[in-house]
Write a structure and sequence with these properties.
Strand content: over 45%
Largest sheet: 11 strands, antiparallel
Order of helices and strands: HEEEEEEEEEEE
Length: 167
Amino acid sequence: MVMRQKILLVVIAVTAFFNVHAQTVNGSRPSDPSLMKGKGNLSFKLNGQLYKTDSTQTKCWTTSTVPLAMLWAKGNGLNISWQIQNMQGLTTYRIDKDSKGSINFTIGNKTYWVRKVDGSNYLNIVITGIKDLYSVKLLSGTFEGVLEDKDGNKVQITEGKFTTKGI
């Protein structure tokens, strides 16, 4: 994980920690460790083949205090993560200048990125739903785009969908 991502994660975790402990007691609230888990779904087609992540390890979220959306999703041979800078709600985000590698799809033994900064690689993410839960905003939406591996081989991502149902 990139150092900037680690620092951001710490800031978000500390913010969530203080927000959770500043509220009144709620017996149905999840414990702090469960905030790092997910309850969601993510699926997409890569060059026509369907992939799905584990519903207990899929989550896309942001907070009201930090305008950064993050997705973490894992499955059998899958590890997907992305960041949306300056999250502004229900809209389309086109990520086409990701020279720092904040978007990656690891499928089997290959990792794909939005590597080029010329716009030929991209990921379009459409946030279609936001659900407030405690100090977290759970996100749902769709995505599609063109990614490439370290050797310059490009792949097409289509029919991407993600839903975050809980923590």
